[in-house]
Amino acid sequence: MASIGDGSERQRIAQQRLRVLAGHLRRLGAEERPGVAAQECRAGPRTRRENVPAAPQDIMKWNGWGYADSKFFFNKKGQGEFTGKRYRLSGLILPSLKDWFEGTFGANLQHKSPAVPSLNTSAVAPPSLNEAFVEELKSTGIPFSHDTEDRVFRAHGHCLHEIFSLRDGRVGRCPDMVVWPNCHNDVVKIVELACKHSVCLIPYGGGTSVSSALECPPEETRSIVSLDTSQMNRILWIDEKNLTAHVEAGIIGQDLERLLNESGYCTGHEPDSMEFSSLGGWVATRASGMKKNIYGNIEDLVVHIKMVTPRGVIEKSCQGPRMSTGPDIHHFILGSEGTLGVVTEVTLKIRPIPEYQKYGSVVFPNFQQGVACLREVAKQRCAPASIRLMDNEQFQFGHALKPQVSSIFTSFLDGLKKFYITKFKGFDPHHLCVATLLFEGDREKVLQHEKLVYDIAAKFGGLAAGEDNGQRGYMLTFVIAYLRDLGMEYYVIGESFETSVPWDRWVLDLCRNVKERIVRECKEKGVQFPPLSTCRVTQTYDAGACVYFYFAFNYRGLSDPVHVYEQVEHAAREEILANGGSLSHHHGVGKLRKEWMQETISSVGLGMLKSVKDYLDPNNIFGNRNLL
Amino acid sequence: SAVLYLKTEFLFLKKRDDFEDILEERRNSSDLRYAFKCYTPVLYRGLTPCKAATLKSMVLQSEQLLHVINQVSAESGESTDVVKDEAAAILEEMAHRLQLRTIRFFAYTLSKAFKALYRSVCVNEEGIQRLQQAMQEHPVVLLPSHRSYMDFLMMSYILYTYDLSLPVIAAGMDFLGMKFVGEMLRMSGAFFIRRSFGGDQLYWAVFSEYVKTMLRKGYAPIEFFLEGTRSRTCKSLTPKLGLLNIVMEPFFKGEVFDVNLVPVSMSYERVLEESLYARELLGVPKPKESTSGLLKARKILSEDYGSMHVYFSPPVSVRSLAQGRINRSQFNLTPRHVAQKPSEETQAFVNDVAYRIVRLQQENMVVKPWVLVATLLLQSVEGMELTELMEQTSWLRDLARMFGAFLDWPDHTPCSMVVSSSISLHRNLACVSGSRISLVVEGPQGPETPEEALFNRAVSVLSCASYRNQVLHVFLRPALLAMALSNANSSRKEDIYSCFDFLRNVFSDEFILSPGASVQDFDEACHLLVKCGAVELLHQDVVMAESGRTVLSFLTLLLEPFLQGYQVSCSLKCYEVLSSDLQKNALNALIRLNVVRRVRT
């Protein structure tokens, strides 16, 4: 066993950290935690199934986002509610949700568009198995399955069209079988067998892709094997001298964080999908975490990567913090989206759990002022762990998710705050917008930092609006994906997409143009109600920012809503590119955005990537056809 | 240009809006009350309200301008403060000071003047409604045709009347020469630009940033004349691209979602400057704009200038025009405050848009009966029988209609009445003696020298030609084809096309012929001539139809003066050759075609 460090003190810190984490993310109890495990394969007892087990469909939705027990619904009184126990919002009544929902989308609770209740397994084509491959695989003892539910669950990510089809009971090409390697060596064996028998491999981590990356290419004639990394979920060692941890790539974000917390550490990498997404998936898509201002994005966090390719295993020989040894081979792996091989083990930087964490929020009279403030904060390089700016529509949306107030006093206070901001300070409720903040570190430094940021905000007309608003903003991040499922029950479909863009051309420019383009395209395509088209700034950099768009509309009266949706999203992406935005900041390209790759990285650039693919995987064993 | 080209069918089936006379209400109610009416225009929804003075400081502090100031200062060695002061002085000289007081003053005085000058001022109200809608949505650029000083006064007057945002207008610096009046114009929204500032980087930067700032902020609709100057010949001038480039740039760079271009066609039954223009074309210098000149011109108030039509075309969205033509991401790699020379692709696009707008202006120009009469008179300069004129006018009316002209011909009135009433309005140009009608030639009381006689004759022909020119755009393409038919080596379609293409190329400074639209123009011409039965399209050939002689010879004669003018060697058979405008165009064409070379002396 690797060292965990000395007992009680670490235990205490870990528990504190857990409480902090629970602030914006509540999850299942601790009874299923795996420990830090031994390095060799299959040594000692291990928990075979994590929070997201090998049969995740048992606790997760098969046709929607997240846990099966957590969902929004309208109760008999027409009030919104969120079920389950996992989140802060769980079990609460949301009185303003209905009005917001009906008002924003022109939706009506009487008009329902329910999903098919369960998967009709007979609608799924039987697996086409490569017998020789299956025979040899059996002899290795690596578990596998060709159960229909297992296959269907790994046939999709969370793009709108994928979920929409599932709700309709439609299933396209599925993997023909699923394998669960237990360790790096298992992967080596599987890849060897796949090459030998000409089988197509598609690596599968957390399944949270929103780029059609997990879709099986319909033109693929070989047997497709989904390589599910979920069983490779151990922390192999922690090195406190160098502050690194060596981790198997199948580990899910929240498990990684929790296990490290037990040792008093964290990675600080918290993408919005961290409840379900895997370390290997982060590496393969160049993921970005909410707190990147302190901890960095995934490319800043990795020290060492081990990847199995058809050509062999690729890794560096040492763990030096920086090297000048030609182009960094990690950068061929980061963002390769499963086209080159399977990431099996990663050495990551870790940090001691911060002593203190504090949320905050600032109200600005309008979006421009807010953006100007974020720009100044970035310029002075004093961004807190996270700083995000919601536009007015999203601010109103946040309000719709406010739980029922517990006392007259709170409601009176809310009224007073609103009065102060709108009447006394003269903010227009239809223009004001909110920045949410998260500070982390030593208590004293956090307080200093907080003051600095609030002082800057004040220069741009920002008013501090309390911790609670900030915390609710971050909580929204985790539940918003659940909200799409609610919309789909009532003829509302939507999606989010993101971009990164230089500072000088995006306030009122990229944001406004893209939002307007969405509205206009919807109208042209016959959408009968104005869409929800809103954005927020989720990350700031020295030279630009990351912008997130939410887009949803009521599709009643449309014969092919998904097609309309796709056309509008396509137009929105063209608009982003025309306005100087990037193809993607962290979602990746997958198959959804690959038509723009050439104009994005030039045909020479594309040729470089192709030649790497041709060298590593000449027979296209990793045949998910993402990216290129 | 294929994208921008107006589809032939669309052009001829198009239904135009009805007109309303805005002077009617002025004749029936108090002008004073009108001048002091409650004026609350619908504003652009993205408007950041600011004052004219704030606007100036925004321009002076803009990154764009500061960048150029630093460059200029680095190149010239002057300190940035000096250059900044220079920029401020340029802006001071240029900037408008739009204020409602002055507008109200003009609303009052112009009401009086217009009622004295015009029988009616007709505006298409549907166009106004579309404009109002467009003004709320996106920044608007108003692009009126330019035939008279009246144009921009009239535009602001109409917008004020309909409670629309008042435009800021790009005007020539010449007006500033007029004491008091120049400043009055400034206060009614005019901003003044030098006629030429080719190499002056700083001037260009101040100017373009000033216009772009107003556009980006949605400060006011921006109005300018694509033709650059008043057309002395009443024929559309080939468009100038500078300002159009400037107003499209904020869209290219993503600073605004879209820009709406609104072509406005202003047609006068009689242009105020009628005889001045003819003299100017013959080389008599343009009278300098001066206040005393304006006061002297009061006498025109006692004359009858007939009616006037203003047609607001539907807004043209730059975004939809640019769709598939402009790759906006080409601007992604340079900071937006650094001016970039437009790419060839962009230049070609702007040029196409400019031609398209001018053609839209032409298309909705109202053609008065007199225009047809003048056209016919010019083809028989020695005069003709009145009855023959009546007959031919009626024939020409039908032909013009068939070709899609926007004819203002009174319903249920016999042709003879219409013709004689237009002759009487233009009695300074044509006179009837007995049963014959001929051009009026003004002469001195006493004996005149041969030079004077020639000059006076030319004045009357050129004045008359300025009316004929108003219908040229209707007949231009078929006329070029008619000319090609009579000049081509064979009746084979390729031969005729190549002759057509040659003529089109020769005349592309003279007329509005969109570059690169030769094939479409040829098709359009064929379509029209087949439609009126003048030619037949056989398998490989284009041949004249039996009944086509009249139409074809009319069309050929129509362009004859221009053809002659271009035959530089010709002796002065045709008075229009004397027009300096034609000489200039011909010279440009010859230079373009490499026939002659410009030698600096």
UniProtKB/TrEMBL annotation, chain A:
The keyword Flavoprotein applies. GO terms for biological process: lipid biosynthetic process. Pathway: Glycerolipid metabolism; ether lipid biosynthesis; Lipid metabolism. Its main location: membrane. It is found in: Peroxisome membrane. FAD binds at residues 203-209, 285-288, 337-343. It holds the Pfam family FAD_binding_4. Its EC number is 2.5.1.26. The keyword Transit peptide applies. Its cofactor is FAD. It is an enzyme of class 2 (transferase). GO terms for molecular function: alkylglycerone-phosphate synthase activity; FAD binding. Catalyzes the exchange of the acyl chain in acyl-dihydroxyacetonephosphate (acyl-DHAP) for a long chain fatty alcohol, yielding the first ether linked intermediate, i.e. alkyl-dihydroxyacetonephosphate (alkyl-DHAP), in the pathway of ether lipid biosynthesis. This is Alkylglycerone-phosphate synthase. It comes from Denticeps clupeoides (denticle herring).
Automatic annotation (TrEMBL), chain B:
SUPFAM superfamilies: Glycerol-3-phosphate (1)-acyltransferase. One of its GO terms (biological process) is phospholipid biosynthetic process. The keyword Transmembrane helix does not apply. Pathway: Phospholipid metabolism. Keywords: Acyltransferase, Membrane, Transferase. It comes from Denticeps clupeoides. It is found in: Membrane. GO terms for cellular component: mitochondrial membrane; peroxisomal membrane. Belongs to the GPAT/DAPAT family. Coiled coil: none annotated. It holds the Pfam family GPAT_C. Its main location: membrane. Residues 140-269 form the Phospholipid/glycerol acyltransferase domain. SMART domains: PlsC. GO terms for molecular function: glycerol-3-phosphate O-acyltransferase activity; glycerone-phosphate O-acyltransferase activity. This is Phospholipid/glycerol acyltransferase domain-containing protein.
